[in-house]
Amino acid sequence: MSTYIPSAHEIDRKWFVVDASGKTLGRLATEVASVLSGKRSPKYVPFIDMGDHVVIVNAEKVRLTGLKSQQKVYRRYTGFPGGLREESFVRLLERRPEKIVEEAVKGMLPKTKLGRKMATKLNVYRGDKHPHQAQKPQPLEIN
Fold this sequence. Notes:
Helix content: 25-40%
Shape: globular
Strand order of the largest sheet: 5-2-1-6
Order of helices and strands: EHEHEEHHHEE
Mean pLDDT: 95
Number of helices: 5
């Protein structure tokens, strides 16, 4: 018996829209990462990008549990000596809430070329409007 491997033209990508209002960041990110990687597809193959497109709206209404909203710090490095920049969750939520959700989802994808390709199918928006209406995204319910 031979193993079935789908070809590129057999992959049928769907579009999903997720409302992040009141959702816990980690639980939202794990569900979205599994959709982006294609693990919900019955034709899933780990070495092919089988995932669907995901649009996340209302990123500014995502929440964290416990004291994480006061204690969580996002760090990045500019590449220059002394260039470590830190920003609190509260400050980043005011400035760029899309970045918080994107980093959480990308952190749950593989750290490879395939993972970076999966991450390109993620679109995060601050409000409830998005420019992907033409793709007719289906609502994806996350508990």
